[in-house]
Each structure stands twice: as C-alpha cells, then as structure tokens.
Batch of 2 targets.
Target 1
Amino acid sequence: MNRSKYKLNQITDYINEIIKNQQGVGLSVAIVKDSDIIYSKGFGYSQIQPVNRPIDGETLMSIQSISKNFMALSIMQLVEKNLISLDHTIVKYLPYFRTKNKEHSDTITIRHLLSHTAGFPSNLGIANMIAPNVREIFSDTATEFQEALDYYNLTEEEISSIQTRDDITKWFKKVELEYPVGMGWNYCTDAYVILADLFEKVTGYNWETSLRDEILTPLNMNRTTSNSRIVEKDKNSARYYLGQDKIETPFPINPISAPIGYLYSTANDLGKYILFHLNKESKVLRSNLIEKMQNPIHLVSEEWRFDSDIRSYGLAWFTDKYRGFRIVEHGGGQLAVRSLMSMVPELNLGVVVLLNFDGTIHHDICKKIIDIFIDERG
C-alpha cells in the first residue's frame, strides 16, 4: 500500500472508531491538498427516519456560521470594485443605523462589523429569534419560548415586527455598546445581517442572487444554496438529531438571517471553497484581498480561545497556531448542527467536517487529520 493511501486509510479508521464510540448519527468529511480534493467520505446517516439514508460528500447540510465567511467575501468583492471601503462608516451607507449612543455608533465601520470589534454585546439574539419556526425550536416546555424571549430581552411583538434586513439594522437602536468601538472583541452573530443590508443598499441587488452569480457559480459550488425548500426536498440532505436519544430537531430555516448561519452546502462544495482561499485564485477576489481576510485583527475573548494565547479573528476567519503551524478556520453550530472548515496554509491543506448531531468530535477529527499530515513531514 502506498504512503498516501495508508494515510487516508488511517483517517477512515479513526473516524469510524470515533463515530462508533460517540454513537453519532452522521458526518461528512472532505480533505483538500494543494489543488485537489483528495478525500471525500461520509460516515453514518444523513437521515434515520423513516429509513436510514447514508451520508456522503454530496449530502446537503446546514453550515451555520460558516455562512458568515460567504457574507464577508461578498463585502470584499465590493471593496475590490471600489464601491466601498472597509474603513467607511456604516452610517455612510445605512443612515438609519444607530445604537443607544449615536455618537459612538456613528464611528462603527464595515471592518468593525466584519471583525466583531464594533462594541456590540454577544447575546443579542434578534437574528436567530426571527426564525419562522422559532416556537418549534423552543417547545420542550410550555414556558421555554417565553424564557428565550426574556433571556434576550425581546417581546413577541418585537420579533414579529422584523420583516426585512433593514428592520434588523433599525432594531440596533436599542443596543448599548459593551466596550469602545474597535477596542475589544465580542462575537455578535446579528451584525452580519447589517452587512447584508449594506450590501443590498450599495448594489441594489439581493445578496443571495449575487452570492450565486458572483461566488458559487464561478467556484462551481453547485450544491450550495440559501433556499431551505430546495434543501428539504433534496433526497440527499441531512436532518439533525440531538442527544443520546437522537431526537430530530427543527430544520434550520431563517431566510432574513441567511448571512449569519442559514446557508446549506456539502463537504465537497466547501472543499472547493477552501481551495479558492488556500490558493488565492483571483477569479472571485484578488489575492491580496483574500489574504487580508485571513490576517488577524483582534484577539478573541477568553471563552473562544480554547487554551490558546494567540487565537484571533480577522474578516470572518479565526486564526491560531497548532504545533507551530498557522491555522485559519471557521466553524458553526446550533442545536444538532456542527460544521468546521480549517486550513493550514503552510501545508496547503484544508479540512471540512460536517455533523448532523451535537458534540465536539468535528474538532477532534480535524485535529487528527492535521496531525497525520504534519507527522508525515517528519
């Protein structure tokens, strides 16, 4: 057996063992090296009701916060076209944007939103709570939905009044900044809806249409979409299962908030996406702007560091070091959805892991794959 095949068999054996021990449902993995997808495999099932359906590299799955990276790439395309600058303020394009302290929020820039350094709290909740099936999500008890509203300091009237992306932007007038603009870091998922609002006001185009025409089609990502109806009808699409009892969770749907976490893709499509970022292909964005996205801007807050002293965030990429190698990655998760795409530029290596159950084994699998490729170098 040649060395390359042995290495990939090691990976398969490891994942088979870990998913068996974890009693997981299904996961999909793609590995890219240099200019190719060298490994694409599914383990377990995409659906277990009414019958078991095998999962593979073409299975459509929710990617949750990896969606933010696509939103950021769309913004960078506007920078390339000189339609905007990263250091322009949000109010230059969205004059109705403000927080409780207008004087401070008037200084918030596009770069601040992309890098989560705008000063927003991390637990706003508005973008997720407008999901059309939010009551189903919070239905374990008779009071769970109200408890979620109370936790986020929201009302039913408030979330039902959100009909468009600019409604989200206008909602921010109730937000109080937690730290001076640009002087800290908080992962505020809701801010990426504002970026979509800005994109649509600047271009006059629906973001999802531009995403398809300007990013997905050029990269041949034919299985990636924002359309949940298409995904749910597709025979090779995942459902999501929570806990030891594998209880099916509500399907992740939230069209207004698509840029924060409601795109759907496959391990193979995300492999193509990683190849674009690794090799800095200019057909979608100039190489210097791709590099700019991957450059760290600010150290992340303690709960996001995972025992690292240097874990940082750039423009929709986390950056870190692992065994002396630079790591560039983004993940996502909600209920029983887990996603991770990770790059090791020095090895020209990328890994995608998508799960349809809860837990942290996507990180374990990614780390094991990187270990195998590092160890191969001796």
Target 2
Amino acid sequence: MNVLRADTFPAEAVRERARAGTAAAFPPLGEYGRTLFGAERPHETDELDAARLVPPVFVPRRLEKLIELAREPVYRDVVLDTEIGGFRSPLPVYLSAFGSTQVASVDLGVAASAQAGRLGIPMVVGENVVPVDGYRRVGGAAGARSLLGRITAYADALPDRFGGLVVQQSTEDADAEVWNLVYSDPSARSLLESGRLGFELKVGQGAKPGLGGMTVLDAPAAARLGDAFDVDAVFGPGADRQLRCASPGTFTEEVLRQQIRLMRNNFPRARVWVKLPPGRDVGLAASVAWEAGTDAVTVDGAEGGTGWAPMSFLDHVGLPLAECLRRVGEPAGCLLASGRMWEGTRAVKSLALGARAVGLGRAALIAVDTDAGRGLANLVECLALEMRLLISALGKYTPADLGVDDVWRSAAQVREPVAEPMGGVRG
C-alpha cells in the first residue's frame, strides 16, 4: 500500500529500515571498500535537517562513565530509558497519533498498536476513531479498527512497567464522550490501575494548523452524516465523494487552562497531555499548558501528516519543527516533538533542543505496511542504535545529558527567541 506521496517523505528509506532493522543504519555491506559514500549531499532546506551534531574534543562525561564502569565506555553503554509524560519507556520514542485517516483505518492501525505494545513505548490513539470506526464493534475487521480494538491490541502486548496508552480527543470526540467511555470501561482497567492511561487534548496538528479533521466520504455516508457534521461537495456537483470537516475548536489562554483543570478533576487517575499545532504563539501555549498542570506538551511541526489536508496547508501553513522548538525555548515540563521523525540524527537534534521524546507517525505506518509483524520493531531498533551511536559520540550517556551546545546551526539559523504577546484575547 502506498500510504503517502513519495516526494514528501523518505518512504523507501523507512521501508528499508522496516525490512533490515539495524543493518539499515550503515551503507550497503556489499559496497564496503568499493564506494565513496557521502560525496554528494542533497540540497537541504529544513532547518532541523540542515543543523549538525557537533561532538566535543574534551569529554568529561565520558571520563565519569569510564570511572563508573572501570573501562572505556562504548555506545552500547548509552542508557535510553526515559519517562515520557508520566510513562516509562525503553527509549525516548512514542507512537504519535493517527486516528481515522484512511490508511490507519485498515489493518495498519491495529498492527501498529500491537507492535508498539510489544516494544513497550507509549502510544497515542488519534482523534475521530469513535465517530468513524466506533468505540466497541464486535467481530471482523470493523471490530478490530474500533477504538477498543486498538486499545486491546496495545494493552494485550504490553510488558510490565513500560508503556502507556494516551487517547486523543477532538471536538467531535468530545461530543461522543470518548474519554468517559475509556475511563469507565473495564477493558481499560488494567491500564488505569497500573498508571498507564492518559488523555490528550488536541488543540491542533501540524498537517493543517487552524483547521479541524477532514475526511472524504462516499455519497451514502455523506447523506447519513450530513445532519451531524459539516459536509461540503467540494469535488463538484454529482461527485461520488464529499468532504467532511470537523471544528478545530476555540481556544484562548483561559479556555486551555480550564480544559486541563477539567481533565484533572474528571479523570484524576489519567495522565494529561496537550497537543499543540505549529502556531506562532506555540511557546506561550506550551507555558500555559505546563502552568495548568499538564504532564506533557506535544509540539507537532508543519511537516505534514497521515490524514487528509489541503495542499496549500501542507506546503505553506505553520512553523517547521525547528522553529517551534526555538520558540518554546527551555521547556518548563515534558516536551514531545513530532514531524518527519524516522531516523536518529533528527531525533537526537530534537532531544538536544529540548524535547524529552520524539513521535513516530507516518514512519510507523510505512513500517507496519512493509511488515505487519515486525516492521515497526525493526524501525525502532535501527533508530535506537543510531541514537546510542550519536549520543555516545557527543560524549554523553543519557538523552537527558544532551543540550543546545551539541547542535550547530548556521548564523542565518541562530536568532533571538521570539517575543510573544503576554496579553492577547482571553476567554
């Protein structure tokens, strides 16, 4: 299955990692000793990709590790275990949200849930799954694709102590009372009692900042849902497909504070996450969320997404992830970053610039599409190897030790933090 346009994401590189695992971190073995690698570099326009990791000459942390181990440390001594928004994870990676998008509504969403569970990494179940696929459908593929089907696939595979399931809620999900359904369901009790259940308030996403979810419906579905949702015949009169749009929601500083307080009061045993779009005031929004007591803030850069979005938004709307991280600055809490994550260098740069962990979205779907049994596991294993190699090269041995000094950016990229308005419209 071709899950996205080939020119917007390195899909074939991800597929190779899903097939080969850690071997994909290196040039082809058959070319060893016969080919000069790295002679040509592609034109780089993404600020995060254009930045470089810069190991130091003097490595006092390595000396500390040498004394601790009583031997010279190597990359395998890097410890990737971390806490992500209140959940323990074997590495600073989580499965990012993809909800009712067409590619996730087939078996890929369930396969990804099962593989993420076996890996023990946290997983976010995206928006609109209940309105599109239902909460508890019984039997067959439809039952597996339902929200409960994804929850069960993840929870059944989860090892002790690791991982955590985070259920995202949009405006449509709120109307369906998705969080209430999950919080009170006996099927989710093991996650709740083990402290591995969370809810994510979706303020926006990178693929279409300022817009809500969009789904293409066939004519019968459009007629059936026309009274409940905004349906628009944008593809022309008489077309057999129509566009269904969701409200993006209305947020001010005070509305966001109140939403987080309500989440904490109504679901006291669940972790609280907030997902922010790549807006110009993303730094202020993150500060408001942390001050209100959220366990994690996810910043989703304008690097596209798995769902349906207008081309004008994919190409021209929203801040790139590097700029989002710059505007957030020194995080006041757990900061998570997503946007074209699939390999170690981009992940380690994001960690050095303040993120606690990075989210796999499109890359996870491609990996699962390549191999429904082990594709995601192979991809994550390769990512973990690269992260250990890179962090060790920086003379450090945990992701928490990384900092902005580990990243070099050109003079054109280094700017003063943006001064954001502290007043503005309040709810």
